[in-house]
From TrEMBL:
One MF annotation (Gene Ontology) recorded for this entry: zinc ion binding
Residue ranges annotated for the B box-type domain, each copy included: 88-129
SUPFAM superfamilies assigned to the protein according to its UniProt record, in alphabetical order: B-box zinc-binding domain (SSF57845), Concanavalin A-like lectins/glucanases (SSF49899), RING/U-box (SSF57850)
RING-type domain mapped to chain residues: 15-56
Keyword Zinc: yes
Entry-linked CDD domains: Bbox2_TRIM43-like
Keywords: Metal-binding, Zinc, Zinc-finger
Name this protein carries in UniProt: Tripartite motif-containing protein 77-like
Residue span(s) of domain B30.2/SPRY: 268-450
PROSITE patterns named among the record's database cross-references: B302_SPRY, ZF_BBOX, ZF_RING_1, ZF_RING_2
Superkingdom, taxonomy of origin: Eukaryota
A Pfam family reported for this protein in Swiss-Prot or TrEMBL: zf-RING_UBOX
Length: 450
């Protein structure tokens, strides 16, 4: 339904979406103008390329910076349109029977000229109603932009947690397989400990899965609330001055309060349990790996691949510092073609590191990419203060606590097993199971800055 203001405005000043006068108008590349809030709400859930609501011209992408041109025409303010609305009871002074044209900043009331000079208001600050209304409209628009920014952040958070949510059951099941594979190697009396470990791991996995689901649900609900308050702010902008001034306080408070409680994406993590006798068993196969200093090339492709892991799609502009010469990759002097071997690497407090084994021919390649085949690596990747663990190949995240200090590496060549051990906790980090090795394997170490 058209508002009273709309009936007084020329058609070129009317948004074809909301059928009301423009709120924060923008011009698209095709020349049609719309309210910014109207386009935000219209394009919010568009799956295909967004297009102009009038001529259906396709926009390059849903990005106002690229699809919307500069404001070519500044629309006149409400006060510049030759249109006078009928005076309502709220606008008419009951004492002097004249229109209230002033707003008292002290007690937030509307006054006529005579009342503004009365002893009761003589010491108060008074401003024209239209001036105050425009000021509040500017604040409303700022709140709307802030709300929309928070809504987009909430959508990104939903996508992030949903991706984890989709693979969580598979990850928990895979981790149960990895943990279960360790226990047949120890004595039979550890079967009770194994069963308890797996039961708690399964229960913990279900609890975290439920928390992830609730996390997604809360963010979806917050998205709806943010949209609702956004629409309320837009409707408030379109109200007459008197109505807007009476309702703006409560709506603004709710808008600001809601933005303080945006739910953040959950970072799931499973507990790590010590496996009795594991280190004692592995120490029976201990070897001492020395570094081959003849192979010391700084392969840019490797460090660039690591930075791609560090920079998520929402942080593509993260600064990228080139790897220093002291943090170049190193290889073990030994190669393994048979038997069982165990060694330990001290990563200390390094924020980013890579350890493991690789096909010997990989050491001479100039395109050492982390998605290459025949590499069996454990990576710790740091983004700000958040640490993530990955293993290759294929690239797989591990939602457990970041290991520090000494990390053990165990190779059983004939059985096709490579395991990574948290020495301090005597717990399994991850392992590669049932691989088939038909080529020499060389230890690999890369530690970044602390």
């Amino acid at each position: 339904m058209e508002s009273a203001f709309t009936q007084c405005f020329p058609s070129e000043f009317i948004c074809s979406i909301c059928k009301d006068n423009f709120t924060d108008p923008v011009t698209m590349s095709c020349g049609h103008r719309f309210c910014t809030p109207c386009l935000c709400l219209l394009w919010e859930d568009v799956q295909t390329a967004p297009c102009c609501p009038v001529c259906k011209a396709v926009s390059p992408k849903m990005d106002f910076k690229s699809t919307i041109l500069a404001k070519e025409h500044v629309l006149p303010t409400r006060g510049s349109v030759v249109c006078q609305l009928p005076s309502s009871a709220k606008q008419l002074c009951s004492i002097h029977q004249v229109i209230k044209l002033y707003f008292c900043q002290t007690d937030k009331s509307l006054l006529c000229l005579f009342c503004s000079h009365s002893p009761e208001h003589a010491t108060h600050e008074h401003y024209p109603v239209k001036q105050v209304a425009e000021h509040y409209r500017e604040n409303l628009l700022m709140q709307m932009k802030s709300i929309w920014k928070k809504k987009k952040e909430n959508q990104r958070n939903i996508k992030k947690v949903t991706n984890i949510f989709r693979v969580w059951e598979g990850f928990v099941n895979l981790r149960m397989v990895m943990i279960g594979a360790e226990y047949p190697k120890v004595c039979q009396y550890l079967q009770e400990e194994k069963q308890k470990h797996l039961e708690i791991l399964a229960i913990e996995g279900k609890i975290v899965f439920q928390r992830l689901r609730r996390n997604v649900a809360r963010m979806v609900h917050m998205g709806k609330l943010l949209r609702r308050i956004y629409e309320e702010l837009k409707e408030l902008c379109l109200k007459a001055d008197v109505d807007m001034l009476q309702d703006v306080g409560d709506t603004m408070k709710r808008s600001q309060l809601m933005q303080l409680y945006i739910p953040q994406p959950m970072d799931p993590q499973l507990s790590t349990w010590a496996i009795t006798g594991m280190l004692e068993r592995l120490n029976n196969f201990r070897v001492y790996v020395t570094l081959d200093h003849k192979i010391r090339n700084c392969h840019v492709a490797l460090t660039e691949d690591l930075r791609r892991l560090q920079c998520s799609p929402d942080h593509q502009d993260m600064p990228r510092n080139p790897a220093s010469s002291e943090n170049t990759p190193s290889w073990g002097a030994q190669t393994f073609t048979t038997g069982k071997h165990y060694w330990e690497v001290n990563v200390g407090n390094s924020r980013t590191w890579i350890i493991g084994l690789c096909k010997e021919s990989w050491t001479s390649r100039n395109d050492m990419l982390l998605n290459s085949e025949d590499i069996f690596l454990l990576l710790c990747v740091s983004v700000e203060d958040h640490f993530s663990l990955f293993s290759t190949f294929p690239l797989l995240p591990h939602y457990i606590q970041r290991p520090q200090g000494w990390i053990g590496v165990f190779l059983d060549y004939e059985c096709g097993i490579i395991s990574f051990i948290n020495v301090a906790r005597s717990s399994l980090i991850c392992n590669f199971l049932s691989r088939s090795f038909s080529f020499p394997l060389r230890p690999f170490i890369w530690c970044g800055p602390k």
